[in-house]
């Protein structure tokens, strides 16, 4: 109970708009520093819309770089190994400061849409891994994440959240614009674009793809080790990957675990028939100008 009351007493962050995108106020206040962040040519950046398989991808990348050394990947929690460049959280720290203090080669993370990405990443031709997840599952996962995380606004009811998500009135902006923007950029820049659903369906193949992009040749045994160690059930129990190291007043896993289900198609347990129809109609309009295609179930 004490843990819950601590969470209840912790104020949620405030948010503001930066160039039309909703972001935490602390991020907006530090925007000049973030925009002028100096990427280095050997930086590796993982970019996603929030709750699209980011932590999973980070764990995979770390293990590829360490050639399957599981102990090495337990050296620190995810958010220390991969600073989020735009994340500034009172009492947890600034991702920007962390990144600037890191030795090269650096692993970094962002949720920024392509138009808000600090230009030095593209100017230096940094390797960027983008992971996209189907919007229905992404919405459900993000909703539950906001419920348990004081680093984000209160999501309100599911019905309210559904409308806000479709309107792009959530932190880091519209899902549709995010996935389309990065998709469009992938052919001009050093971007590997992956899909959450493909990673679920054939993890070994997608991990191999990542290894090649990173420039690592891994044998079958190492690939199998990485597949096992980054499976949902193993990661859920890994304190270095499941965000249980953060204070409960910021993230309360009793409300909803950070690693909740990790499945494809869970949206069916949340969407009403009417919501699904409304979503599909809206989706058709917003995705009419792109070749991007998603699997909403297997």
Automatic annotation (TrEMBL):
It holds the Pfam family Sulfotransfer_1. Its EC number is 2.8.2.-. One of its GO terms (molecular function) is sulfotransferase activity. InterPro entries: P-loop_NTPase, Sulfotransferase_dom. It comes from the Eukaryota. Residues 41-290 form the Sulfotransferase domain. GO terms for cellular component: cytoplasm. Its main location: cytoplasm. Coiled coil: none annotated. Belongs to the sulfotransferase 1 family. This is Sulfotransferase. It comes from Oryctolagus cuniculus. The gene is SULT1C2.
